[in-house]
Design brief:
This is Sulfotransferase. Strand 5 and strand 6 form a beta hairpin. With 355 residues, the chain is an alpha/beta fold. Helix 9 crosses helix 10, helix 9 packs across helix 12 and helix 12 packs parallel to helix 16. It has one domain: Rossmann fold, CATH 3.40.50. The mean pLDDT is 89. A 5-stranded parallel sheet has the order 2-7-1-8-9, sandwiched between helices. Helix content is 48%, strand content 8%.
Length: 355
Protein backbone atom coordinates (compact mmCIF):
# COMPACT_ATOMS: atom_id res chain seq x y z
CA UNK A 1 0.00 0.00 0.00
CA UNK A 2 1.03 3.61 -0.39
CA UNK A 3 2.45 4.69 2.96
CA UNK A 4 1.01 8.17 2.48
CA UNK A 5 -2.42 6.52 2.85
CA UNK A 6 -1.52 5.33 6.36
CA UNK A 7 -3.46 7.18 9.03
CA UNK A 8 -1.74 8.23 12.27
CA UNK A 9 -3.29 5.18 13.95
CA UNK A 10 -2.06 2.89 11.14
CA UNK A 11 1.44 4.26 11.60
CA UNK A 12 1.28 3.81 15.35
CA UNK A 13 0.17 0.17 15.02
CA UNK A 14 2.96 -0.44 12.50
CA UNK A 15 5.58 1.05 14.83
CA UNK A 16 4.27 -1.03 17.72
CA UNK A 17 4.29 -4.24 15.67
CA UNK A 18 7.83 -3.80 14.39
CA UNK A 19 9.31 -1.88 17.30
CA UNK A 20 8.28 -4.21 20.13
CA UNK A 21 9.80 -7.65 19.44
CA UNK A 22 8.74 -8.97 22.85
CA UNK A 23 5.07 -8.21 22.17
CA UNK A 24 5.40 -9.69 18.67
CA UNK A 25 6.91 -12.84 20.16
CA UNK A 26 4.14 -13.14 22.74
CA UNK A 27 1.49 -12.87 20.03
CA UNK A 28 3.29 -15.52 18.01
CA UNK A 29 3.46 -17.85 21.02
CA UNK A 30 -0.21 -17.26 21.80
CA UNK A 31 -1.10 -18.16 18.23
CA UNK A 32 0.93 -21.37 18.55
CA UNK A 33 -0.99 -22.32 21.67
CA UNK A 34 -4.45 -21.44 20.37
CA UNK A 35 -4.09 -23.08 16.97
CA UNK A 36 -1.75 -25.99 17.76
CA UNK A 37 -4.22 -28.67 16.63
CA UNK A 38 -5.13 -26.83 13.44
CA UNK A 39 -1.50 -26.21 12.51
CA UNK A 40 -0.64 -29.87 13.08
CA UNK A 41 -3.06 -30.78 10.28
CA UNK A 42 -1.46 -28.49 7.69
CA UNK A 43 0.86 -30.05 5.13
CA UNK A 44 3.29 -27.75 3.35
CA UNK A 45 3.81 -29.29 -0.07
CA UNK A 46 5.39 -28.05 -3.30
CA UNK A 47 5.84 -24.41 -2.26
CA UNK A 48 6.37 -21.94 -5.08
CA UNK A 49 9.07 -19.28 -4.80
CA UNK A 50 8.85 -16.49 -7.40
CA UNK A 51 12.16 -14.67 -7.36
CA UNK A 52 14.50 -12.55 -9.48
CA UNK A 53 16.03 -9.13 -9.34
CA UNK A 54 13.26 -6.58 -8.76
CA UNK A 55 11.57 -5.16 -11.86
CA UNK A 56 11.86 -8.49 -13.68
CA UNK A 57 8.14 -9.31 -13.64
CA UNK A 58 7.82 -11.07 -10.29
CA UNK A 59 4.86 -8.93 -9.20
CA UNK A 60 2.93 -9.69 -12.37
CA UNK A 61 3.47 -13.44 -11.95
CA UNK A 62 2.46 -13.23 -8.28
CA UNK A 63 -0.70 -11.27 -9.13
CA UNK A 64 -1.74 -13.97 -11.60
CA UNK A 65 -0.84 -17.04 -9.54
CA UNK A 66 -2.50 -15.54 -6.45
CA UNK A 67 -5.84 -15.90 -8.26
CA UNK A 68 -5.45 -19.67 -8.41
CA UNK A 69 -7.82 -21.57 -6.16
CA UNK A 70 -4.99 -23.56 -4.58
CA UNK A 71 -2.63 -20.64 -3.99
CA UNK A 72 -1.95 -19.02 -0.62
CA UNK A 73 -0.02 -15.75 -0.69
CA UNK A 74 0.73 -12.92 1.68
CA UNK A 75 -1.47 -9.86 1.20
CA UNK A 76 -1.58 -6.34 2.54
CA UNK A 77 -4.24 -7.54 5.01
CA UNK A 78 -1.47 -9.46 6.82
CA UNK A 79 0.31 -6.26 7.78
CA UNK A 80 1.71 -5.46 10.26
CA UNK A 81 1.59 -8.75 12.21
CA UNK A 82 3.07 -10.88 9.44
CA UNK A 83 4.36 -13.52 11.86
CA UNK A 84 0.92 -14.19 13.38
CA UNK A 85 -1.48 -14.38 10.42
CA UNK A 86 -4.10 -16.51 12.15
CA UNK A 87 -4.66 -14.23 15.14
CA UNK A 88 -4.28 -11.03 13.12
CA UNK A 89 -6.85 -12.16 10.54
CA UNK A 90 -9.32 -12.84 13.36
CA UNK A 91 -8.63 -9.54 15.12
CA UNK A 92 -8.51 -7.33 12.06
CA UNK A 93 -11.61 -8.65 10.27
CA UNK A 94 -13.87 -6.32 12.22
CA UNK A 95 -11.85 -3.34 11.02
CA UNK A 96 -11.85 -4.22 7.31
CA UNK A 97 -13.07 -1.41 5.12
CA UNK A 98 -13.31 -1.24 1.31
CA UNK A 99 -10.23 0.41 -0.16
CA UNK A 100 -10.17 1.53 -3.77
CA UNK A 101 -7.30 0.33 -5.91
CA UNK A 102 -4.49 2.83 -6.33
CA UNK A 103 -1.18 2.81 -8.17
CA UNK A 104 1.69 1.44 -6.10
CA UNK A 105 4.70 3.54 -5.18
CA UNK A 106 6.78 2.25 -8.10
CA UNK A 107 4.84 4.48 -10.54
CA UNK A 108 4.61 1.56 -12.99
CA UNK A 109 0.88 1.40 -13.63
CA UNK A 110 0.22 -1.59 -11.35
CA UNK A 111 -2.69 -0.98 -8.98
CA UNK A 112 -3.20 -2.51 -5.55
CA UNK A 113 -5.67 -2.62 -2.70
CA UNK A 114 -5.72 -4.17 0.77
CA UNK A 115 -6.38 -7.65 -0.61
CA UNK A 116 -3.65 -7.58 -3.24
CA UNK A 117 -0.84 -10.13 -2.83
CA UNK A 118 2.47 -8.72 -1.71
CA UNK A 119 6.05 -9.72 -0.93
CA UNK A 120 6.18 -9.98 2.86
CA UNK A 121 8.19 -13.19 3.25
CA UNK A 122 11.35 -11.19 3.92
CA UNK A 123 9.89 -10.20 7.30
CA UNK A 124 10.17 -13.87 8.24
CA UNK A 125 13.81 -14.02 7.13
CA UNK A 126 14.65 -10.87 9.06
CA UNK A 127 13.15 -12.51 12.14
CA UNK A 128 14.73 -15.95 11.69
CA UNK A 129 18.13 -15.15 10.16
CA UNK A 130 19.12 -11.53 10.82
CA UNK A 131 22.79 -12.51 10.54
CA UNK A 132 22.38 -12.81 6.74
CA UNK A 133 21.75 -9.06 6.47
CA UNK A 134 25.02 -7.18 6.70
CA UNK A 135 25.57 -3.43 6.22
CA UNK A 136 27.18 -4.07 2.84
CA UNK A 137 24.47 -6.41 1.54
CA UNK A 138 22.63 -9.71 1.73
CA UNK A 139 24.82 -12.79 1.84
CA UNK A 140 24.38 -15.80 -0.45
CA UNK A 141 23.10 -18.77 1.57
CA UNK A 142 23.84 -22.29 0.38
CA UNK A 143 22.39 -23.67 3.59
CA UNK A 144 20.53 -22.46 6.65
CA UNK A 145 20.28 -23.90 10.17
CA UNK A 146 17.56 -26.49 10.65
CA UNK A 147 15.74 -24.23 13.11
CA UNK A 148 15.49 -21.50 10.47
CA UNK A 149 14.06 -23.96 7.96
CA UNK A 150 11.58 -25.20 10.55
CA UNK A 151 10.58 -21.63 11.33
CA UNK A 152 9.97 -20.89 7.65
CA UNK A 153 7.93 -24.08 7.21
CA UNK A 154 5.96 -23.20 10.33
CA UNK A 155 5.19 -19.77 8.90
CA UNK A 156 4.00 -21.31 5.63
CA UNK A 157 1.67 -23.56 7.62
CA UNK A 158 0.30 -20.58 9.56
CA UNK A 159 -0.39 -18.66 6.37
CA UNK A 160 -2.14 -21.66 4.81
CA UNK A 161 -4.20 -22.22 7.98
CA UNK A 162 -5.18 -18.54 8.09
CA UNK A 163 -6.90 -18.96 4.72
CA UNK A 164 -8.95 -21.99 5.80
CA UNK A 165 -12.65 -21.45 5.27
CA UNK A 166 -12.14 -19.33 2.17
CA UNK A 167 -13.54 -20.43 -1.18
CA UNK A 168 -12.10 -23.85 -1.91
CA UNK A 169 -9.22 -25.23 0.13
CA UNK A 170 -6.05 -23.30 -0.77
CA UNK A 171 -2.98 -25.29 0.22
CA UNK A 172 -0.04 -24.21 -1.97
CA UNK A 173 2.25 -21.58 -0.53
CA UNK A 174 3.20 -19.07 -3.24
CA UNK A 175 5.67 -16.32 -2.36
CA UNK A 176 7.25 -13.52 -4.29
CA UNK A 177 10.54 -12.59 -2.66
CA UNK A 178 13.29 -11.02 -4.75
CA UNK A 179 15.88 -11.76 -2.08
CA UNK A 180 15.21 -15.50 -2.34
CA UNK A 181 17.59 -15.60 -5.30
CA UNK A 182 20.27 -15.42 -2.62
CA UNK A 183 18.93 -18.60 -0.96
CA UNK A 184 17.97 -21.07 -3.67
CA UNK A 185 20.59 -23.57 -2.54
CA UNK A 186 19.38 -23.42 1.05
CA UNK A 187 15.72 -23.58 0.04
CA UNK A 188 16.32 -26.61 -2.18
CA UNK A 189 18.10 -28.43 0.62
CA UNK A 190 15.22 -27.99 3.06
CA UNK A 191 12.31 -27.91 0.59
CA UNK A 192 13.23 -30.53 -2.02
CA UNK A 193 9.73 -30.41 -3.54
CA UNK A 194 9.78 -26.63 -4.06
CA UNK A 195 9.39 -24.86 -7.39
CA UNK A 196 11.59 -21.87 -8.28
CA UNK A 197 10.17 -19.43 -10.85
CA UNK A 198 12.52 -16.78 -12.24
CA UNK A 199 11.35 -14.26 -14.85
CA UNK A 200 13.93 -12.92 -17.31
CA UNK A 201 13.76 -9.44 -18.81
CA UNK A 202 16.03 -7.94 -21.47
CA UNK A 203 19.12 -6.81 -19.52
CA UNK A 204 19.29 -3.26 -20.83
CA UNK A 205 15.57 -2.73 -20.32
CA UNK A 206 15.84 -4.28 -16.87
CA UNK A 207 18.87 -2.23 -15.82
CA UNK A 208 17.19 1.00 -16.94
CA UNK A 209 14.13 0.13 -14.86
CA UNK A 210 16.29 -0.69 -11.82
CA UNK A 211 18.08 2.65 -12.07
CA UNK A 212 14.81 4.57 -12.40
CA UNK A 213 13.38 2.90 -9.29
CA UNK A 214 16.57 3.43 -7.31
CA UNK A 215 16.49 7.16 -8.04
CA UNK A 216 12.73 7.34 -7.39
CA UNK A 217 12.94 5.63 -4.01
CA UNK A 218 15.95 7.73 -3.10
CA UNK A 219 13.69 10.77 -3.38
CA UNK A 220 10.86 9.07 -1.47
CA UNK A 221 13.15 8.01 1.37
CA UNK A 222 14.55 11.53 1.61
CA UNK A 223 11.09 13.09 1.84
CA UNK A 224 9.16 10.55 3.94
CA UNK A 225 10.78 9.06 7.04
CA UNK A 226 7.88 6.65 7.60
CA UNK A 227 8.14 5.30 4.05
CA UNK A 228 11.83 4.64 4.65
CA UNK A 229 11.09 2.90 7.94
CA UNK A 230 8.27 0.85 6.40
CA UNK A 231 10.48 -0.46 3.61
CA UNK A 232 13.21 -1.36 6.07
CA UNK A 233 10.79 -3.13 8.41
CA UNK A 234 9.46 -5.36 5.62
CA UNK A 235 12.95 -6.07 4.28
CA UNK A 236 12.70 -4.24 0.97
CA UNK A 237 16.30 -3.16 0.60
CA UNK A 238 16.38 -3.07 -3.19
CA UNK A 239 16.45 0.67 -3.81
CA UNK A 240 17.06 4.15 -2.54
CA UNK A 241 18.64 5.00 0.80
CA UNK A 242 18.10 1.42 2.00
CA UNK A 243 19.84 -0.26 -0.94
CA UNK A 244 21.66 -3.40 0.14
CA UNK A 245 22.63 -5.51 -2.87
CA UNK A 246 22.68 -9.28 -2.88
CA UNK A 247 26.34 -10.24 -2.77
CA UNK A 248 26.55 -12.46 -5.83
CA UNK A 249 29.96 -13.95 -6.68
CA UNK A 250 32.16 -11.25 -8.21
CA UNK A 251 29.71 -8.44 -7.54
CA UNK A 252 31.79 -6.51 -4.99
CA UNK A 253 34.92 -6.63 -7.15
CA UNK A 254 33.16 -5.82 -10.43
CA UNK A 255 31.27 -2.82 -9.04
CA UNK A 256 34.14 -1.42 -6.96
CA UNK A 257 34.41 1.64 -9.23
CA UNK A 258 30.66 2.01 -9.85
CA UNK A 259 27.89 3.81 -8.01
CA UNK A 260 24.18 2.84 -7.78
CA UNK A 261 23.20 6.07 -9.55
CA UNK A 262 24.78 4.78 -12.77
CA UNK A 263 23.28 2.46 -15.38
CA UNK A 264 26.55 0.52 -15.58
CA UNK A 265 26.19 -0.47 -11.91
CA UNK A 266 22.73 -1.99 -12.46
CA UNK A 267 23.75 -3.76 -15.64
CA UNK A 268 26.70 -5.25 -13.77
CA UNK A 269 24.31 -6.28 -10.98
CA UNK A 270 22.12 -7.97 -13.61
CA UNK A 271 25.12 -9.86 -15.04
CA UNK A 272 26.29 -11.07 -11.62
CA UNK A 273 22.79 -12.17 -10.62
CA UNK A 274 21.83 -14.10 -13.73
CA UNK A 275 25.33 -15.51 -14.26
CA UNK A 276 24.98 -16.95 -10.76
CA UNK A 277 21.45 -18.30 -11.37
CA UNK A 278 22.06 -19.80 -14.80
CA UNK A 279 24.24 -22.49 -13.24
CA UNK A 280 21.17 -24.07 -11.65
CA UNK A 281 19.12 -26.74 -13.38
CA UNK A 282 16.09 -26.55 -11.08
CA UNK A 283 14.69 -23.18 -12.16
CA UNK A 284 11.54 -22.57 -14.20
CA UNK A 285 12.58 -19.67 -16.41
CA UNK A 286 9.98 -17.27 -17.81
CA UNK A 287 10.96 -15.18 -20.84
CA UNK A 288 8.98 -12.02 -20.06
CA UNK A 289 9.23 -10.70 -23.62
CA UNK A 290 7.45 -13.80 -24.88
CA UNK A 291 5.15 -14.14 -21.87
CA UNK A 292 3.84 -10.58 -22.08
CA UNK A 293 3.38 -10.96 -25.83
CA UNK A 294 1.42 -14.22 -25.70
CA UNK A 295 -0.24 -13.83 -22.27
CA UNK A 296 -0.28 -17.63 -21.97
CA UNK A 297 0.02 -18.78 -18.37
CA UNK A 298 -1.33 -22.33 -18.77
CA UNK A 299 2.17 -23.75 -19.53
CA UNK A 300 3.48 -22.26 -16.28
CA UNK A 301 0.57 -23.74 -14.32
CA UNK A 302 1.43 -27.17 -15.70
CA UNK A 303 5.10 -26.76 -14.78
CA UNK A 304 4.05 -25.89 -11.22
CA UNK A 305 1.72 -28.87 -10.98
CA UNK A 306 -1.25 -26.53 -10.60
CA UNK A 307 -4.56 -27.38 -12.24
CA UNK A 308 -5.60 -25.13 -15.10
CA UNK A 309 -7.68 -22.39 -13.54
CA UNK A 310 -10.01 -20.39 -15.78
CA UNK A 311 -9.77 -17.35 -13.50
CA UNK A 312 -5.98 -17.24 -13.83
CA UNK A 313 -6.00 -17.86 -17.59
CA UNK A 314 -8.61 -15.16 -18.22
CA UNK A 315 -6.78 -12.71 -15.96
CA UNK A 316 -3.60 -13.22 -17.97
CA UNK A 317 -5.42 -12.67 -21.26
CA UNK A 318 -7.11 -9.48 -20.06
CA UNK A 319 -4.41 -7.83 -17.98
CA UNK A 320 -1.02 -8.78 -19.47
CA UNK A 321 0.30 -6.33 -22.02
CA UNK A 322 3.42 -6.66 -24.20
CA UNK A 323 6.58 -4.96 -23.05
CA UNK A 324 6.58 -1.72 -25.02
CA UNK A 325 10.30 -1.41 -25.54
CA UNK A 326 13.27 0.40 -24.10
CA UNK A 327 16.10 2.71 -25.01
CA UNK A 328 18.42 0.62 -27.17
CA UNK A 329 21.38 2.93 -26.72
CA UNK A 330 22.68 3.64 -23.26
CA UNK A 331 25.94 4.73 -21.54
CA UNK A 332 27.26 1.28 -20.72
CA UNK A 333 30.47 -0.47 -21.67
CA UNK A 334 30.04 -2.49 -24.91
CA UNK A 335 31.76 -5.44 -23.26
CA UNK A 336 29.23 -5.42 -20.40
CA UNK A 337 26.31 -5.28 -22.80
CA UNK A 338 27.69 -8.15 -24.89
CA UNK A 339 28.09 -10.28 -21.77
CA UNK A 340 24.57 -9.48 -20.59
CA UNK A 341 23.03 -10.20 -23.99
CA UNK A 342 24.82 -13.55 -24.16
CA UNK A 343 23.47 -14.56 -20.75
CA UNK A 344 20.00 -13.34 -21.70
CA UNK A 345 19.97 -15.36 -24.92
CA UNK A 346 21.02 -18.51 -23.07
CA UNK A 347 18.30 -18.05 -20.44
CA UNK A 348 15.62 -17.41 -23.06
CA UNK A 349 16.68 -20.68 -24.70
CA UNK A 350 16.24 -22.43 -21.36
CA UNK A 351 12.78 -20.88 -20.98
CA UNK A 352 11.76 -21.98 -24.48
CA UNK A 353 13.05 -25.51 -23.94
CA UNK A 354 11.13 -25.99 -20.69
CA UNK A 355 7.95 -24.11 -21.52
Amino acid sequence: MQTDAYSPIDRLVHKMAFGMPIARGLLHDLETSLYKAQLAQVQVRNPVFITALPRAGTTLLLELLARHGDAVTHSYRDMPFILSPLIWRKLSTRFHVPIAKSERAHDDGMTIDADSPEAFEEVVWLHLAPQNFTPRGIEISTDIPDEVARGLRDHMARLIASRAGATGTPNRYVAKNNADIARLGALRRHFPDAFFVVPVRHPLDHAQSLLRQHLRFGEIHGEDAFARRYMGDVGHFEFGALHRPILFPGFVEETAQLQPDSLEYWLCYWICAYRHLMQREDIIWVDMQRFTRDAEIAPLLRQLDLAEDATVIEAARHTVRPITGYEETAPVAPESLRTALSIHAALCDKAAASG
